[in-house]
Amino acid sequence: MFLINKPLFLLICWLLPALLTAQDFLKEADDYLYPFQKVESKNLANFIKEIAADKRIIGLGEVSHFTKDCYDLKSAIIHTLIEEGYDGLVLEVDFGQALIWNDYLVSGEGNLDSIVAQSGWFTYRTEEFKSLLANIRAYNKTSEQAFQVFGMEMTAVNHNISWLQAYFKNILPENNSIFERLAQERNIVAFGSFNATEQSDYWTLFTELNTILMDHQDQLKAEKGAAKYAIAQRITEIMRQFATYIAQDDYGLKGEFRDQFSARNVYWCMQQLGTDSQIAIWAHNGHVAKTSILFNYDVLGHYLEQWFGEAYYAIGFNWNKGAFGAFSNEGFKRWEFEEVSEPSLSRDFAALNANYALLDVRRFLAKEPAPDHFLRQAIPARSDMSESYNESRSRMMEINLSKTFDAYIYIHDAKYPSAISWLP
Question: Could you give the CA distance from residue 223 to residue 219 in angstroms, rounded to a whole number?
Fold first, then answer.
């Protein structure tokens, strides 16, 4: 009789359920998988060069708003896109904030340390993001055509108001009521709550701004130029978007308006760069995805795919373990997760023994038409993290890659970014 010792038997019994339920989510994907060990990888750069030529927009997601590897990987991709002739980058940040960064990138206006440290969005107060801006500025100094950055957001308007104050100064009479309206103390907190009076105030401000721009169009264009007049018009439109956004009492409806307006603002930015412009987008996975992962409404990526078809290319990010930053009930803090143990896409990526990997989802699925293929189903993966996190949230999620992303970049061990203290 064949005998097996008891410890070995117990080990087999413990492992058997996991072995039986395990899935190989990357089965037959070898020709579409690109493992790499360093961010500065030829595998990554060559892949981006290959897909860039016939795309109008490349959406770059992130697994969290505060993970070093996402900053580094997206920066590497953006540098490659600049080399390939791309014209600009649109960020998930308020429109007026990006104007300040763009003035620095195009003309060297301002101090880089200050304009990053004064960002109202923690997402961009890192050494990694500052390094990206410094490198773009260095490129623009010797380039005939400047690479520009824009913001797509309408959820904060303090920088927009400051820009308009400077724009109208010395152009309109000092007794014009718009100066008093712009200087008025008001609630400007992004994602905050606004009472009925505050909501009405922003609608009134939009109406007055719109009237002034129409009544003084010729004068403003003659003295400030057509380009700045176009920005003033866009900021006024964003005031309308903001007024609409804060008037909603339903969180889902707020989010739906936010993504719709972001899509419109992305399109405006592209038009400013030229009718044939090519851009990248920097935002969370949840926004660049072609079908919503986190929400029950259509997101930015959905609209861009509707408008641009296959010329919109969404790159999502996945991760396994490591650190990220997010708000908690006790304020902003560092979180850290251990390696994924359950059967999942993240665990299958880990089996590649690489720091990073890229899966060419679009081409792989073109080769795999079967509707029941793993990547056409909802499959488990490490959860995306947003601006906040608490222990009650699941650390795993399900994702259907065939509906969400054209490529998926895996990060094995996420690192915490180099934070920059906020300078009010």
Answer: 6
